[in-house]
């Protein structure tokens, strides 16, 4: 069955648009010229604000508002495209860069013009070698066509784009850690404020946007903000690219209008064509977002507000469906291992807390869990969530809290394998603290 | 890490005062600083590990959490990174159970992977982790043995202990002066920031990430810098310890006497840490106007000399005699002398030099006072050394003594007695000093058995710098005071001022008498009392300002 959902970012998929001539023949770059450069910066930011476009990296912050925070007339402004796609389950940006790199460049030109950017970076996850190749090829084609470099299209506007490969750290998807890494420092989040929009790369105003956010811009400029805002529901405007994986018949990257029921994404012929086995739960937005049970997923919709109402998040749009043959306890341990491994080690609660939570999960998986361990995990989450520099620890807390709450029976069964589960862990009079 | 790092703003005497609300009470605090310093100014101590007033902010330990009003109402924030704003509301554990719980949790996280080392840890007793645990911790631990710990340490240093637990790195020789214990490290990053921002030589870094992170040097390199021992002071735990002090003495048995650096004209403020008459170490004493919290390794090493090669008695023609015999000989020579050269010393206090001037006054026109030093002067290093090895050079010139040792050399034939006090001319320049051997009577007051003592016809031992009370003026014109630590190797030793006053026949018993003499003859010091100098010194007006 043909895919009838509206397409904004993936419209050129499978058409060979990696080549600039094909991309141009499909209507690409047609607005980079008078149409773009006749707009003032304020008109362009207003246009993006009216489109209702929100950041597609995970937090869903309104893009136009983010741009409006960037001060003008002082230090140079940098644009950094966040292509450090590291969230387990997410792979949309990889395909977007592989299939349609010129759309990203065109989007960067639009954002660059709006913010007065002269130098822009694409921070690509280190493992995405083919995406880096695809981008570099597209960038050199764009330079040859006079679409990048000095005096683009005789407008007087100049933009240079550099591709920067990360070194393989999940935390570098956090914008201030990304900036540190871009500067050549260890990829660890900075204290905020100041926020990057005011003081980011090289202490200059820096706009950090996700690949998908930037790639929506050419369509918005072409079709107008009202057309974009007309797609989607409520305050969730436009389309979203989802990476669907897990126990579905046809996993992959799908674009649809926001507000699509999650079950339609999983069952529909034009998307995943059904779940393998009987669905046990769905992670709706990437590993850090709280899991949904089948019952919750049955009426959940893929947009910011309705998922928030379900106590979870749209995140980066990484849907992971799993069936009843999966062991949720080992699934959770796999996630806690990931967050313990990816904690940057800068601040104490996350450094020690995520590792501790993982060690607790390890004992549970190994059949040595205690009755008190589930409460212990919740205590740890409560401890490290509000006290850290960045949200990585909170991202660990999302799955821990939701998995242990929603699949409690599975966890209790895992703990029940330990015959000594009810024993006192320590002598009641022993107050270990420093002395263990 | 990156260029966004900035130094904490510290309150000063002329800070704008603002009112903030702490735990429901309005208090007046300096308005240009962070909450840790502001709360400290009203007597509220905030537990912390990574914050240090003289290092850039890092905000990684999360121990100093407080609650303050943000865009979403009262919320947790770290006190070190939160600037004071007039009218802000702050909640400490005294009023907020949320803050108390958050601090307790962070403390638990600090301890989750910290070893039970305290009984054998050299830092015990001055460990921030112990102190903060008593203030903010004391909770029930969640740790149990079958969950185990992830001790910090480099892969190549890891080992399995007798209980089968995977352990981190212990007893690692990280440089010529320092031992690293990776397990104890809480990754506060203070040492890294010290090396980067103060020493200016980035020799340490945190490798790896998460709970596998550890402090290390760059591959094949050692921690070796003229200021590296400061990292052992600022290390909040026993991860970095000094080889020279390690296992020598328990810190709670040490007494601390405030003093100043005797090796350099900056006069870095120090503590003499001693017990039972022995000095175990010298530690920096914080003075934001002089040396901040740092001293050089060379300053630290000065304590070793206090028990080495001391001159404890008298010498007459190279033979050991009692102090009184030597003193009697000196007195006779001074009384019968036709022309006496008195050589003052920038290594001695103002009081000692004043006593020498008093002696010159007693001797009348027969005496002439010389001053200066032949020790080479280096460039300032911008941290805690001025490069001038003569600590009280400025004070000596303030007393009106000229820098004229060269004249003494050229006019040596005029004198029949020369008296040197704690200035080792034969060591500083043996060629020039040779000319002084033309003077038949060479009298030397010295704390050490130096080259000058060997060249003297008569010498007598005196107290060394750590054993005397007195003042010096540093290179920037700051009058600073050193206190006497009770560490004299022999009770009979006397300070230089007292020995000189015996020679002058005035028999001063208290150092204050020497000080009164000094203030009487030196107008910049006029009417300054000891009590006015204070622990951080007193900046004298520029030399042109007095009449």
If you had to describe this structure to a student in words, what would you say it looks like?
The complex is a heterodimer of chains A (about 425) and B (about 550). With about 425 residues, chain A is an alpha/beta fold. Chain A has three domains: about 20-230, NADH-ubiquinone oxidoreductase 51kDa subunit (Rossmann fold, 3-Layer(aba) Sandwich), CATH 3.40.50.11540; about 230-325, Ubiquitin-like (UB roll) (Roll), CATH 3.10.20.600; about 330-435, de novo design (two linked rop proteins), CATH 1.20.1440.230. Helices cover about 40% and strands about 15% of the residues of chain A. Chain A is built from 19 helices and 13 strands. Chain A has helices at about 20-25, 35, 40-50, 65-70, 90-100, 100-115, 130-145, 175-180, 210-215, 215-225, 225-230, 260-265, 295-300, 305-310, 330-340, 350-365, 375-385, 390-405, 410-415, and strands spanning about 75-85, 115-125, 160-165, 205-210, 230-235, 235, 240-245, 250-255, 260, 280-285, 290-295, 300, 320-325. In chain A, the strands form four sheets. In chain A, strands 8-7-13-10-11 form a five-stranded mixed beta sheet. Chain A is globular, with a radius of gyration of 23 Å. In chain B, a hairpin with a 2-residue loop joins strand 1 (about 15-20) and strand 2 (about 25-30). Chain B has 17 helices and 25 strands. The model of chain B has no long low-confidence stretch (mean pLDDT about 95). Chain B is of the alpha+beta class. In chain B, helix 9 runs parallel beside helix 15 (about 495-505). Chain B is elongated and about 85 Å long. In chain B, the strands form seven sheets. Chain B has a seven-stranded mixed beta sheet with strand order 17-16-22-21-20-18-19. Chain B folds into three domains: about 15-110, Ubiquitin-like (UB roll) (Roll); about 115-130 and about 140-255, 2-Layer Sandwich (Alpha-Beta Plaits), CATH 3.30.70.20; about 310-540, Rossmann fold (3-Layer(aba) Sandwich). Classes of the chains: A alpha/beta (about 425), B alpha+beta (about 550). At the A-B interface, helix 15, helix 16 and helix 17 of A face helix 2 and helix 3 of B.
């Amino acid at each position: 069955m043909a895919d009838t959902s509206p397409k904004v970012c993936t419209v050129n998929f499978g058409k060979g648009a990696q080549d600039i001539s094909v991309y141009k023949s499909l209507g690409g770059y047609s607005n980079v010229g008078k149409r773009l450069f006749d707009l003032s910066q304020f008109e362009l930011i207003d246009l993006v604000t009216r489109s209702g476009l929100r950041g597609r990296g995970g937090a869903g912050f309104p893009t136009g508002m983010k741009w409006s925070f960037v001060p003008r007339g002082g230090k140079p402004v940098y644009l950094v495209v966040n292509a450090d796609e590291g969230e387990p389950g997410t792979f949309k940006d990889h395909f977007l860069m592989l299939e349609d790199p010129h759309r990203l460049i065109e989007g960067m030109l639009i954002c660059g013009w709006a913010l007065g950017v002269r130098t822009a970076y694409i921070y690509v996850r280190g493992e995405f070698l083919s995406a880096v190749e695809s981008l570099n090829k597209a960038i050199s084609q764009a330079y040859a066509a006079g679409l990048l470099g000095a005096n683009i299209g005789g407008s007087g506007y100049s933009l240079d784009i550099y591709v920067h490969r990360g070194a393989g750290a999940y935390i570098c998807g956090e914008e201030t850690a990304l900036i540190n890494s871009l500067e050549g420092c260890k990829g660890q989040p900075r204290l905020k404020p100041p926020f990057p929009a005011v003081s980011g790369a090289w202490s200059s105003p820096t706009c950090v946007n996700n690949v998908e956010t930037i790639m929506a811009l050419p369509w918005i400029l072409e079709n107008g903000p009202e057309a974009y805002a007309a797609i989607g529901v409520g305050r969730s405007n436009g389309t979203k690219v989802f990476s669907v994986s897990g126990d579905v018949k046809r996993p992959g990257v799908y674009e649809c209008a926001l507000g699509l029921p999650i079950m339609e994404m999983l069952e529909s012929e034009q998307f995943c064509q059904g779940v393998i086995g009987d669905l046990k739960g769905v992670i709706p937005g990437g590993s850090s977002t709280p899991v949904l049970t089948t019952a919750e997923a049955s009426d959940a919709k893929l947009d910011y507000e309705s998922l928030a109402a379900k106590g979870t998040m749209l995140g980066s749009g990484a849907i992971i469906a799993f069936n009843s043959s999966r062991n949720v306890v080992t699934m959770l341990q796999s996630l806690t291992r990931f967050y313990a491994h990816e904690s940057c080690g800068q601040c104490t609660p996350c450094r020690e807390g995520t590792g501790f939570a993982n060690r607790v999960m390890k004992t549970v998986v190994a059949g040595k869990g205690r009755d008190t361990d589930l409460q212990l995990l919740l205590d740890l989450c409560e401890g490290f969530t509000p006290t850290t520099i960045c949200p990585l620890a909170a991202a660990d807390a999302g799955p821990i809290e939701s998995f242990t709450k929603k699949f409690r029976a599975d966890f209790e069964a895992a703990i029940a394998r330990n015959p000594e589960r009810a024993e006192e862990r320590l002598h009641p009079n022993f107050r270990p603290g420093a002395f263990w | 890490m990156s260029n966004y790092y900035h130094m904490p703003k510290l309150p000063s005497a002329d800070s704008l005062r603002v009112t903030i609300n702490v735990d429901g009470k309005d208090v007046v605090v300096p308005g240009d600083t962070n909450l840790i310093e502001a709360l400290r100014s009203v007597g509220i101590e905030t537990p912390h590990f990574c914050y240090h007033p003289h290092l850039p902010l890092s905000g990684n330990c999360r121990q100093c959490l407080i609650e303050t009003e943000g865009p979403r109402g009262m919320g947790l924030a770290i006190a070190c990174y939160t600037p004071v704003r007039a009218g802000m509301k702050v909640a400490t554990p005294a009023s907020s159970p949320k803050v108390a719980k958050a601090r307790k949790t962070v403390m638990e996280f600090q301890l989750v992977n910290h070893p039970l080392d305290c009984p054998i840890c050299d830092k015990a007793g001055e460990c921030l982790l112990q102190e903060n645990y008593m203030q903010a911790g004391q909770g029930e631990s969640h740790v149990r043995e079958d969950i185990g710990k992830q001790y910090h340490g480099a892969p190549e240093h890891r080992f399995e202990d007798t209980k089968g637990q995977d352990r981190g790195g212990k007893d690692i020789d990280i440089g010529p002066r320092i031992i690293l214990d990776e397990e104890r490290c809480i990754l506060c990053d203070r040492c890294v920031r010290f090396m980067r921002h103060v020493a200016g030589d980035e020799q340490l870094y945190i490798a790896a990430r998460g709970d596998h992170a550890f402090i290390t040097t760059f591959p094949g390199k050692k921690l070796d810098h003229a200021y590296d021992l400061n990292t052992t002071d600022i290390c909040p735990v026993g991860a970095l310890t000094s080889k020279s002090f390690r296992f020598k003495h328990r810190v709670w048995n040490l007494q601390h006497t405030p003093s100043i650096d005797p090796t350099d004209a900056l006069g870095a403020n120090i503590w003499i840490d001693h017990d039972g008459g022995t000095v175990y170490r010298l530690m920096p004493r914080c003075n934001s106007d002089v040396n901040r919290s740092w001293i050089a390794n060379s300053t630290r090493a000065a304590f070793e000399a206090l028990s080495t090669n001391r001159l404890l008695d008298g010498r007459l023609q190279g033979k050991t005699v009692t102090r009184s015999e030597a003193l009697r000989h000196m007195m006779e020579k001074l009384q019968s002398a036709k022309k006496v050269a008195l050589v003052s010393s920038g290594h001695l206090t103002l009081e000692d030099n004043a006593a020498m001037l008093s002696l010159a006054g007693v001797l009348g026109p027969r005496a002439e006072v010389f001053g200066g030093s032949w020790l080479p002067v280096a460039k300032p290093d911008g941290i805690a050394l001025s490069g001038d090895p003569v600590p009280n050079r400025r004070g000596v010139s303030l007393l009106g003594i000229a820098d004229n040792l060269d004249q003494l050399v050229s006019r040596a034939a005029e004198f029949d007695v020369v008296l040197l006090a704690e200035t080792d001319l034969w060591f500083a320049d043996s060629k020039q000093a040779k000319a002084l051997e033309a003077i038949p009577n060479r009298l030397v007051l010295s704390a050490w058995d130096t080259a000058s003592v060997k060249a003297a016809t008569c010498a007598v031992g005196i107290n060394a710098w750590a054993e005397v009370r007195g003042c010096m003026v540093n290179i920037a014109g700051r009058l600073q005071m050193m206190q006497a630590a009770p560490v004299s190797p022999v009770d009979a030793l006397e300070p230089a001022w007292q020995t000189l006053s015996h020679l002058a026949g005035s028999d001063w018993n208290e150092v204050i008498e020497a000080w009164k003499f000094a203030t009487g003859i030196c107008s910049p010091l006029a009417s300054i009392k000891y009590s006015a100098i204070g622990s951080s010194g007193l900046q004298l007006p520029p030399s042109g300002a007095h009449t």
